[in-house]
């Protein structure tokens, strides 16, 4: 079965380039030319992945990504942008994007990134079990993509959720930033371990009463992090 990809891009020449190369690689494609149209299409159609431009009319890519994740839609998102700065890269991932590609890009790299994301998604789906993960007052159902703290459903981005699951599965183990980067993100952010620190900080905001003295996610100086049961 051909994978369906939604291209969200307002520049016709780039749409033509992406569409031609994706279809040549065996994907089905549909196009949304602005952010509002993208939201409407994701609400009524199912896609295997979204190629999402950052600079869009009506609603920019960051807001589109944020809205999709707020709707509990975990469809993989590859974000495109002409901006090549660290803030946009990290902020896009914080909003729930799965990967980030800067214009101009080669069609081969685009296809490689898409295939890598789809492989990771398949592996995560196949490895998901109905087992409930629980540490202290944190309870996670990986199969349903639901995480609770003190009985309340938490709003997490896809990466926050995957990071939390990985920490729970390795309760009590010291995990380096590089290890977390390689296992949760699984792609080329060589040396950019600040992304891990940012996501850990967001998780702490949601599960720690005092983020300066965390009871669950402990910092192991000079190495990484460890999740513990405070009881």
Write out key terms for the chains shown:
Arc Repressor Mutant, subunit A, 42% helix, 8 helices, alpha/beta, Rossmann fold, 231 residues, 12 strands
Report what the structure shows.
The strands form three sheets. Strands 2-1-3-4-5 form a five-stranded parallel sheet, with helices on both faces. The protein is built from eight helices and twelve strands. The protein has helices at about 10-25, 35-45, 60-70, 85-95, 105-125, 160-170, 175-185, 195-205; strands at about 5-10, 30, 50-55, 75-80, 100, 135, 140, 145-150, 150-155, 175, 215-220, 225. It has about 230 residues and is an alpha/beta fold. Helix 1 (about 10-25) crosses helix 5, helix 2 runs parallel beside helix 3 (about 60-70) and helix 6 packs across helix 7. Strand 11 (about 215-220) and strand 12 (about 225) form a beta hairpin. The protein has two domains: about 5-125, Response regulator (Rossmann fold); about 130-225, Arc Repressor Mutant, subunit A (Orthogonal Bundle), CATH 1.10.10.10.
Secondary structure blueprint with pairings:
Blueprint: E1 4-8, H1 12-24, E2 28-32, H2 35-44, E3 49-53, H3 61-70, E4 77-81, H4 86-94, E5 99-102, H5 107-127, E6 133-135, E7 138-141, E8 146-149, E9 152-153, H6 158-169, E10 175-176, H7 177-185, H8 194-207, E11 217-220, E12 224-227
Parallel strand pairs: 1-2, 1-3, 3-4, 4-5
Antiparallel strand pairs: 6-7, 7-8, 8-9, 10-12, 11-12
Helix pairs in contact: 1-5, 2-3, 6-7, 6-8
